[in-house]
Amino acid sequence: MRFITKRIHAFLDYPVAILLIVLPFLLNLGASSPLAMQLSVITGVAALLLTIFTDHHLGLIPVLSYQFHLIVDLIVGVVFVAAPFLLGFEGLDSYYYWTIGATVLIVVSLHKPETVAI
Length: 118
Hints:
The protein is mainly α. It has 4 helices and no strands. The chain is globular.
C-alpha cells in the first residue's frame, strides 16, 4: 500500500532536514567517531537545499525533478544504513543512523506514483 504522495513528502522534507541538523547536537552524537555528528549535519543542510530546489509545491526554486529528489532520498537511506558498518559507528551513533536510514527507505518505498492526466 503506497500512500505517501508528493504533497505529503514535501511537508515532511523541511522538518526532517532541520532534525538532521539539530538532533546530532541534542543527542550528543559523535562518541564513536566525529563523523557521526558531521554526516548528519551535512546531510541535513544538503536535504534542506534539495527541498528548496525540488519541483513540488513547497520548493522555493523548483529546478530539480521530484523523481531526482526521490533517488537522492533512496541513496541517503542506503548510506545511513551502511554508515555504522563502513565508518565504525557504535552505540547511539549506530542506532541513530540505522533508524533514520530505515525510516527514509520506508518512506521512499511507500511513495505513491503520480498519475498522469492525458
